[in-house]
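The following block was generated as part of the benchmark described in Methods. Ligand: coenzyme A.
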Amino acid sequence: MTTKRPEAETVSFRIENRIAWVKFNRPEKRNCMSPSINRRMLEVLDELEFHVGVGVLILTGEGTAWSAGMDLQEYFRETEAKGLVGTRKAQREAYTWWRRLRNYQKPTIAMVNGWCFGGGYGPLFACDLAFAAEEAQFGLSEINWGILPGGGATKVAVDLMSMRDAMFHAMTGEPISGKTAAAWKLVNEAVPLAQLQARVEEVANILLKKNPFALKATKDAVRRVKEMTYENAEDYLIRAQEAANSFDNEGRKEGIRQFLDEKSYKPGTGTYDTTKQKPKV
Ligand code: COA
């Protein structure tokens, strides 16, 4: 038994070169999600969402785990002992930060450094992009301890994987490597652990060069249109672009100007220089 980590220390973060590195910080418990970590994560996300020094948020784990899912002791056993009110409160604390992350203002990347189980699929799905160590292990382990994959985990598997892979994953509870997770589309890519941080930083730096208003509108659009008919998506995308223009009407004009008039870049192969744009207040 280890001493309980103070709530404030269950998540750590630092900001470097406009990247916020946010870490599940309960390595001794394989970063499993207790009510404390869930509450603290929401506070950290709140603090960083509109921070002017942050352009991209990366979510990773301290130690050998990304997250070993929900805490069987503190999230399940202890809250269930408080009855329905305890259970619902704990669920709300978890689901609230995952939802916040799914709709986050800044682009988000999951950097899966190790174990990723069950409830961990909630924040994994919430991140816009996901990169894993080939050595990482993913699993819908719920069936192994006698429940169905709840907390959105089944939905995540079905949304991201083929029906056959999702069914196999959920019914057998057999872990898969980062490499297989990439092949099954649970993550974008898997690279050896030693190269993971460099690869994720490379991708973060690509995102940092983009127009942030266009990025937010784009990530929302990708999530929303999946559920729509073509007609509805077409309409939504018109409205979404017009709404984005109300926050940033100069960005696209500057992008067009640099291509057509200045001839300083080609949109097909690169990004316009957003630093030449008048800063938004
Ligand atoms: N809930 C509660 N405690 C957990 C936990 C979880 N999900 N995952 C790990 N821990 C605790 C262990 O009980 C242990 O605590 P202790 O030191 O007080 O005994 C500590 O974290 C270290 O775990 P351990 O199992 O010794 O580490 P490991 O590196 O050998 O194995 C795992 C790592 C992730 C394979 C293993 O801990 C595991 O199977 N965890 C449960 C995963 C799971 O099913 N999660 C789904 C929940 S929805």
